[in-house]
Amino acid sequence: MATGKTGRILVVDDEADVLFAMKMLLKTEVKEVVTEKNPDNLMSQLSKEKFDVIFLDMNFKSALNTGNEGLFWLRQILGKDKDAKVILITAYGDVELAVKSLKEGAYDFIVKPWHNDKLLETLHNALQAKGQKKSEKSAANTGHTTILGESEAIQDILYKIDKIAPTEANVLILGENGTGKELVARALHEKSFRANQPFVSVDVAALTDTLFESELFGFKKGAFTDAKEDRKGRFEAADGGTLFLDEIGNISPAMQAKLLTVLQNRQVTPLGSNTPIPVDIRLISATNEPIYELAAKNLFRKDLIYRINTVEITLPPLRVRGNDVELLARHFAGIYAQKNHKPVPEFAPATLQKLKQHSWPGNVRELQHAVERAIILAEDNVLQPQDFSFSPMEMAPAAQSVPAFAADTNMPLHEIERETIRRVIEKNKGNISKAAKELGLTRTALYRRLNKYDI
């Protein structure tokens, strides 16, 4: 990822490791990163300097000791600058508190331990909302998205993008985690007649039902406690452009019904209002869920599927893309060598053989992270097989990633799902990130199921 030297960022957290990790991650992405360990110095910092985005921890070891320190400091920040873009840093156990903070005016939140890509996406969206120039990740909106691949499978995808993009057809993108569904969505937008209009991306799996409505449809002042001003939803924000709903297979039946109504009527009614607002959007949706199986089990509305998939694109997993593995590995090597101030490395023949033989259950995203790790840790400028190590979970074929268990044939479907999740989490010793990857879910989708099944 190239440097996008825009934006001044403040990170407030009393853990030195978090501050260091954030600074290392963000320093090549933005103009300046300032860290602050003591929240008591926060208001003094804001009096002296202007920041485009503030990352704020939700819990500090301070004299307040209320468990809601982040909420207290959020109110202080917004009291000084109501337009401040505050991104909360929270643990899973505080997600409900983070949702409450969104209603109080926080821009968004990230859950520890975070995924770097997701954190950077949230940051870039906040910078865009603040009126800053977009960094490379957001620059994909203006026609710079590149999908690399010479395999027949990926060439077929590129052909479909060229044919579909200029139309107004709603598109459903299917594929495993890490195959590049958002990249395809951005490419469709950039090649469409809406390219100069907004591209708005929403990870709907991360939204509770209440947050789903307020985020997508907006709300009026007074619609709920602490709704202190009108706020546009993502549908309105995307008016004239493209709305990308990621992980759509994870939304609840109640929200499926509300989404269907909006798509049928092409208008939204913000919470707290009785006046519908017309919206003109091109909808692109994506999921790694077996959405037709869900529909067959009445877990996903068939009439909604008809609305969201005028045209369907299924992305191939990396393991069937042949020499694309080498092409992508060299591409990522160039990016991360530059980012880490190292010469671009070569790949030993045995290394390329090892990469091509790996099953890549995490697909392109896993390859990207593997190359980044190798660039950082390698002792030589020729990457050797030992520079790429995979955990037992990563070595397992993708099709065998979820362990089977002997279920009672009369066991309800939800009980089977609950037991599978429980066993995978137990197998991974409580590591949510590893369990989610093995189950083929995002962490947010897994968190929703943990809450649903009270695990």
TrEMBL record:
One of its GO terms (biological process) is phosphorelay signal transduction system. It comes from the Bacteria. CDD domains: AAA. Residues 147-376 form the Sigma-54 factor interaction domain. Residues 8-127 form the Response regulatory domain. Keywords: ATP-binding, DNA-binding, Nucleotide-binding, Phosphoprotein, Transcription, Transcription regulation. The modification 4-aspartylphosphate is found at residue 57. One of its GO terms (molecular function) is ATP binding. Transmembrane segments: none annotated. SMART domains: AAA (SM00382), REC (SM00448). InterPro entries: AAA+_ATPase, AAA_lid_NorR, CheY-like_superfamily, Homeodomain-like_sf, HTH_Fis, P-loop_NTPase, Sig_transdc_resp-reg_receiver, Sigma_54_int. Coiled coil: none annotated. This is Sigma-54-dependent Fis family transcriptional regulator. It comes from Pontibacter cellulosilyticus.
